[in-house]
Write a structure and sequence with these properties.
Layout lengths: L2 H10 L45 E4 L2 H9 L6 E5 L2 E3 L11 H4 L6 H7 L2 H4 L7 H17 E4 L3 E5 L5 E3 L2 E4 L2 E6 L2 E3 L7 E3 L7 E3 L5 E4 L2 E6 L2 E3 L8 E2 L2 E2 L7 E4 L3 E6 L2 E7 L1 E3 L14 E4 L2 E7 L3 E2 L3 E5 L2 E3 L10 E4 L3 E5 L2 E4 L9 E4 L5 E3 L2 E4 L5 E2 L2 H8 L24 H8 L5
Parallel strand pairs: 1-2, 2-5, 3-6, 4-7, 5-8, 6-9, 7-12, 8-13, 9-14, 12-17, 13-18, 14-19, 17-20, 18-21, 19-22, 20-23, 21-24, 22-25, 23-26, 24-27, 25-28, 26-29, 27-30, 28-31
Antiparallel strand pairs: 10-11, 15-16, 31-32
Length: 428
């Protein structure tokens, strides 16, 4: 359905649809700033990114070397970076395609690694020694190319609907950053590490997320798409999938005042981590994040998983088709204070409602206004907290100790599917 027709149909139902900045006309997309009430990133100084950039600090990039140079130019000065077309991360210094083998340390090979650390002979002990050290060096070689740091006062925006960052990790470390209209795809690790102590059966763990917020503040992530880019078919070794992907969007290391709006996150397992340690180091009083009008489609878990933060999760759409690939949606971690409201879930018939929430040592959850459509059934109101408590011990409490104040528009849950499917993602 076209946007005008969709807006008109809502008007007939007595609803007003306010255009988000991505639908606003007559604006330079690099100069758009966050609304004054749009989530936690609007708090205190607000989020303007590089909107004040001088002409000399406005860049259009089409390849990795240009993107790296633009991000490194004039540190701290406001800058706007427009991304055109597809930028490949796994390239050499001349932007020529680079294979995993080109990053490998001479002392590393996967067959040798598998032979050395097979649990049947090595045992349930973390890998160590020269071969593990060679794997780590190989991983560091790849990181030099695929991880790019984003400093303060920066806006990165895709031109058109097909600006793609493929095989790259953007690592935001500064204050006041905007990322909009980008397709993040397939940030893959060529050299995953085997951890025999991760779960009862062990796991392969990879290093790179598509987007990392690391100690970042005042960040707006809006109208983007995140996925594995269709590159998720991997073999199994030691009885576990050889996992080359980590998160899609992780918010960690004391990051704070973040708004994530109108994004599509799909076809991935570990989707969004807010807080990466149970230890009360730099996260207490931080990790304040708003998630609204996002699509979480065919994801396994972490939508989001939260530690410590006051996180507002509202008007999001969750689509689950394959129960075998699904673990949970909302993860209640240590000292988390999640305020969830007006979220819509479409799930397979028979999926336990108590599975939508998962216990990660947290104690409280506010969850109201939820609608669930199971199988071919009509959507019905569901008390997520009651369903969780009925199926699990210990019970979670309902008092999270805060009420969201930065809310630009809270839409009724029943219109969330139409709003999100029409408006979320790059090019919308």
């Amino acid at each position: 359905m076209r946007w005008k027709a969709f807006a008109g149909s809502l008007a007939l139902l007595g609803l007003t649809l306010t255009a988000t900045p991505a639908q606003a006309h007559g604006h330079d997309p690099g100069r758009v700033v966050l609304g004054a009430h749009d989530g936690w990133a609007a708090a205190t100084t607000g989020t303007t990114g590089g909107a004040a950039a001088a002409p000399a600090d406005v860049h259009t990039v089409t390849k990795r070397s240009e993107l790296a140079a633009a991000l490194a130019a004039h540190p701290g000065a406001p800058k706007i970076v427009y991304v055109r077309g597809t930028i490949e991360g796994n390239v050499d210094a001349a932007d020529r395609p680079a294979s995993c083998e080109s990053f490998a340390d001479p002392a590393y090979s996967l067959p040798a690694y598998l032979a050395a650390y097979d649990p049947a002979t090595w045992g349930r002990v973390p890998p160590s020694g020269p071969l593990e050290e060679a794997r780590a060096r190989s991983q560091a070689n790849q990181a030099k190319q695929v991880v790019l740091d984003v400093g303060p006062n920066t806006t990165i925006v895709g031109l058109g609907g097909h600006a793609v960052l493929h095989g790259l990790t953007l690592r935001v470390t500064g204050d006041n950053v905007i990322l909009r209209n980008l397709n993040f795809a397939d940030a893959h690790d060529c050299f995953p590490q085997w951890d025999p102590l991760d779960t009862a059966d062990g796991n392969w763990n990879s290093e790179y997320d598509n987007l990392d917020l690391v100690g970042a503040t005042h960040v707006w992530v809006d109208h983007n798409e995140f996925s594995d880019g269709g590159n998720d078919r991997q073999p199994s070794y030691f009885g576990r999938k050889y996992e080359v992907h980590d998160g899609l969007l992780d918010i960690v290391n004391g990051s704070d005042l973040v708004t994530v709006s109108y994004n599509r996150l799909h076809d991935h397992d570990k989707t969004m981590l807010i807080g990466n340690t149970d230890k009360p180091t730099y996260d207490v009083g931080k990790l304040r994040v708003t998630l609204h009008h996002n699509l979480f489609s065919e994801i396994g878990q972490r939508a989001p998983r939260v530690r410590y933060g006051q996180v507002h999760v509202y008007d999001n759409l969750y689509l689950v088709q394959d129960p075998a690939a699904y673990t949970y949606s909302i993860g209640v971690g240590v000292e988390s204070r999640i305020y969830a409201e007006n979220n819509f879930f479409r799930i397979p018939a028979g999926l336990p409602l108590g599975q939508l929430v998962h216990y990660w040592k947290g104690t409280v959850l506010h969850a109201t206004g939820t609608l669930v459509a199971a199988g071919n059934q009509w959507p019905r109101p569901v008390d997520l907290l009651a369903e969780y408590n009925a199926a699990n011990d210990p019970d979670l409490g309902a008092d999270v100790g805060w009420t969201p104040s930065f809310v630009e528009r809270l839409d009724p849950t029943w219109v969330v599917p139409a709003l999100v499917l029409a408006g979320a993602g790059a090019g919308r």
